[in-house]
């Protein structure tokens, strides 16, 4: 070795310059870094809501974290935490705030699911899913020749399931609210928002413009504040303010009378009057009878051999009538087997052709099970034990070939109308005590049935389309079903919503500790989006925000196509060689997550590349 050469000061300086030069250009040319350039992060949204998440690597918080689809809702949730409310109080305030600020999915006349984990490590699941009205029948969306009439299950008064959101929030408050803050204090910020007006973001203005025709079809212009009142070419634009006076009055009745403020009295009268204007079948008895249900989360512990260490996680997610928890557990079992047995020979990398082929093959099998075996457990004996059984899943996945895809051609292909639209919404909240809630809520389609209750200012859901209206006939997400999810009076329609909380086993104490809170909208793509974000963190060892930002893929058995946001050309070519049909889509999911660091701090990560989503912590 030439001592003089290496000890020369000039060479040192030159080497440092060279290193900086290389680093500078490798960052410049890396498209991911360009995307995440901090100065460029959502300036337009920031000009309306200055506190919006602009931290490109997630938001740090010591005491609490709120991650939602709208900056106003995140802000309201954060205020509740700061005032001494717990995560469940904040969830109630956020839920009502989304009904005002994010009307395409936030709601008081839809439903949803939540996973709760308490500071003592226990957990539970709240099911506030809509039900089929009492006079529903299995054939209600079929004509005389038994041909499906999906326009009736997807839009208008007959598509409405019995609203569940308000009953769900009252139940959450009564059983889990801290009582440091009153019910009134949780609803007041949303009433103010409705009275003072929401300022439209560009995304929300565009969405409202897209639906003007449907709004006019189902609503009287006078009553629907979202119908643009100018001439036909007028449009909503970013910065417009929308005041929702009637909604403020409805929210005030809910504030004053809790459940009775919605299910009885003036709100119920207006709701039933609206239902009777169309071909709706909901009655006062349906409203009186509606009950949320506490359930036991699906709990799946997996042990991952990763970077020479083994880590165990427990995944807590939603049981039936959502398919989310079971399907996610099946997918995690399947992928864990590949990782633990084959990772080094296969060298599975994030979004490589082999990884995506395996994901697709696992998803194909899981979604076929979903179509056949999942429905409301109160009406159908869901074979939960079998579906979660490791030998069952091993056997089922043993037919996966690494050299070609398995065709899904046994049933007529599903038609997918709206794989790209994000009509549901999810939020994740943690508090300083160690409580966490993961809550997904929906009207089903964008603005639900498109019917706004005249005089009450809120949209009704179109959740009835989540039933299988005819065996093998696809719903708006292309999902098929049969006996298990057929329509029956008072039954809950099958869902894909997958609110999830993950615990990590502390190797020193052997105890489960809170690790991650996450969920997403996306209809049929919810399950696979949650699955991929979990893999990105646990298997591919990404930071939480990168795990959310990463491009996603989706397969759901039928139709037999792989949906993808973006992939390298070489990966697409390889997947095609394995026999896969691919379809590029605009967006898969819109995830809101919180990760707990080893020191107990929270990292909030909102899906800022896909929407106005915002994490706020303190
Ligand atoms: O419960 C379900 O699975 C559907 N109603 C969810 C709809 C949905 O996520 C739409 N958003 N993209």
TrEMBL record:
Q: Which domain of life is it from?
A: Bacteria
Which InterPro entries does this entry report, sorted A to Z? GGT_bact, GGT_lsub, GGT_peptidase, GGT_ssub_C, Ntn_hydrolases_N
What EC number(s) would the UniProt record show?
2.3.2.2, 3.4.19.13
Q: What are the binding positions for L-glutamate in this chain?
A: 129, 442-444, 466, 495-496, 523
Q: Supply one GO molecular-function term.
A: leukotriene C4 gamma-glutamyl transferase activity
Classification via Gene3D superfamilies: 1.10.246.130, 3.60.20.40
Q: Does the keyword Acyltransferase feature in the UniProt annotation?
A: yes
Q: In which pathway does it act?
A: Sulfur metabolism; glutathione metabolism
Q: Name one GO biological process term.
A: glutathione catabolic process
Q: Which NCBIfam families match?
A: g_glut_trans
What is the designated name of this protein? Glutathione hydrolase proenzyme
Species whose genome carries this gene: Bernardetia litoralis (strain ATCC 23117 / DSM 6794 / NBRC 15988 / NCIMB 1366 / Fx l1 / Sio-4) (Flexibacter litoralis)
Phylogenetic lineage: Bacteria, Pseudomonadati, Bacteroidota, Cytophagia, Cytophagales
């Amino acid at each position: 070795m030439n001592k003089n050469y290496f000890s020369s000061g000039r060479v040192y300086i030159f080497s440092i310059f060279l290193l900086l030069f290389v680093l500078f250009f490798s960052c410049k040319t890396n498209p991911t870094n360009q995307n995440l350039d901090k100065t460029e992060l959502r300036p337009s949204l920031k000009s309306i809501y200055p506190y919006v998440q602009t931290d490109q690597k997630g938001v740090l918080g010591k005491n609490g974290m709120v991650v939602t689809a709208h900056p106003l809702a995140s802000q309201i949730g954060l205020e509740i935490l700061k005032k001494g409310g717990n995560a469940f109080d904040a969830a109630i305030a956020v839920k009502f705030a989304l009904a005002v600020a994010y009307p395409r999915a936030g709601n008081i006349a839809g439903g949803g699911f939540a996973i709760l984990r308490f500071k003592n490590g226990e957990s539970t699941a709240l099911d506030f899913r809509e039900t089929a009205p009492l006079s529903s029948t299995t054939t209600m969306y079929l004509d005389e020749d038994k041909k499906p009439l999906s326009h009736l299950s997807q839009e208008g008064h007959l598509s409405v399931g019995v609203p569940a959101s308000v009953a769900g929030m009252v139940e959450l408050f009564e059983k889990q609210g801290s009582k440091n803050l009153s019910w009134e204090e949780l609803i007041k910020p949303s009433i103010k928002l409705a009275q003072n007006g929401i300022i439209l973001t560009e995304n929300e203005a565009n969405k409202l413009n897209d639906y003007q025709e449907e709004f006019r079809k189902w609503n009287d212009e006078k009553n629907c504040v979202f119908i643009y009142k100018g001439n036909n070419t007028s449009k909503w634009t970013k910065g417009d303010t929308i005041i929702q006076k009637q909604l403020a009055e409805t929210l005030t009745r809910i504030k004053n009378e809790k459940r009775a403020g919605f299910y009885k009295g003036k709100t119920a009268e207006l709701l039933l009057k609206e239902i009777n204007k169309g071909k709706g079948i909901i009655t006062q008895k349906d409203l009186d009878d509606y009950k949320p249900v506490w359930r036991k989360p699906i709990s799946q512990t997996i042990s991952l051999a990763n970077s020479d260490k083994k880590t165990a996680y427990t995944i807590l997610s939603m049981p039936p009538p959502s398919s989310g928890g079971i399907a996610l557990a099946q997918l995690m079992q399947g992928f864990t087997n590949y990782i633990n047995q084959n990772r080094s020979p296969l060298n599975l990398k994030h979004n490589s052709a082999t990884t995506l082929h395996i994901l697709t093959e696992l998803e194909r099998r899981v979604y076929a099970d979903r179509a056949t075996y999942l429905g409301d457990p109160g009406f159908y004996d869901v074979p939960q034990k079998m579906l979660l059984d490791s030998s069952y899943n091993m056997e089922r996945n043993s037919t996966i070939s690494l050299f070609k895809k398995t065709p899904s051609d046994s049933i007529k292909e599903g038609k997918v109308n709206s794989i790209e639209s994000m009509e549901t919404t999810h939020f994740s909240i943690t508090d300083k005590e160690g409580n966490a809630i993961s809550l997904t809520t929906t009207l089903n389609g964008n603005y639900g049935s498109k019917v706004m209750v005249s005089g009450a200012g809120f949209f009704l859901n179109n959740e009835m389309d989540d039933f299988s209206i005819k065996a093998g006939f696809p719903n708006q997400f292309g999902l098929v079903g049969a006996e298990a999810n057929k329509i029956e009076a008072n039954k809950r329609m099958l869902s894909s919503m997958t609110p999830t909380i993950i615990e990590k086993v502390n190797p020193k104490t052997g105890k489960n500790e809170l690790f991650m809170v996450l969920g997403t909208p996306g209809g049929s793509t919810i399950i696979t989006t949650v699955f991929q974000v979990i893999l990105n963190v646990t298997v591919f060892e990404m930071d939480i925000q990168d795990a959310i930002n990463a491009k996603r893929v989706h397969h759901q058995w039928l139709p037999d196509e792989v949906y993808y946001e973006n992939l390298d050309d070489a990966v697409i070519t390889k997947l095609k060689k394995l026999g896969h049909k691919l379809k590029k889509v605009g967006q898969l999911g819109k995830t809101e997550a919180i990760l707990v660091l080893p020191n107990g701090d929270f990292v909030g990560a909102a899906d800022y590349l896909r929407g106005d989503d915002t994490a706020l912590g303190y």
